[in-house]
Amino acid sequence: NNKEFALTLIEQGHAKLHYKIAKKFQNFEIYKTAEEKARKQLKGLWETFDFEAEKQAMQGPVERQVVSEASADKNKSKDPFPIIVTDIRSGNTFSYQIQNEETSALNELSISLQNENFARHPHHAPKKGEIIAAQYTMDDLWYRAEVLSLVSQGKDLAFDYEVKYIDYGNREVLPHSRIRQLDQEFVDLMKPQAYDGKLVGVKTPEEDDAKDAIEGFKELVSGRTLYALEISTDNTAPKGTKGIQLTHNVILTDKDKDLGLELIANGYTRVDKRLKQDDPLYALYHEAEEYARRERFGIWQYGHNPDSEEEREVERQLLR
What's the predicted TM-score (pTM) here? Predict the structure, then answer.
């Protein structure tokens, strides 16, 4: 009827604008006005839209960090919340996304990044802490990432960059050719979706058993709907730095099954000695560890597993 169908959807609240792309439209202002009107009248999707969450997502990175630190204890969830484990770094440390509307919108953000007209050759030298576009080596797609450090390749050679993909939590070192400057709109469009987590009461093994613990963890979380119960948070930023790097200490469950308990019972990990006797997990975890030890599972295959470097050194001396 001589009217753009997309504009009709916007007017009725059945769709919303992706501003990064829509700004390129010749009639962008018409679309923008139509959306603003639909928002005010709470039409369609705007009737149940979380405007407060949108406001928080649009805060700058520094402001978000301050808010996150000040409200970490105040806003901890008292109930388990659904998550997706996106990266596993050891038998007890990992990254996760909280399943909500924002993680659903992450697909749109990813599509926009792939369609972004990045410079063919890199000309920007990012600094530590900067949010950039990084081309992941496993799939050659672009993702939002934070520069963690600059890795020198020697005199007169370009730097490599250690980056953290802020929506997934995984890290890798990239050459300058896979780094691009990221428009601030992509930074502000959505807060980082990855959270760093650590299993409460679980200690990961070291040396040769560490890889087995990671593989065991991956096997246990694969294809399972998980829930996290946050117990506390720690600021794990390196000493001497002013930044805030929160690690969320959680209990992971799959319906009624405790994944920390499963890791211990299968001999992938052991009980953290810092777990207090009055903690409800103490008796359960120690019973699971004793079972794994008795059955010679995983790290207990030889009946004993040293718990510190001092114990390992004593063991090495005895074997000489």
Answer: 0.71
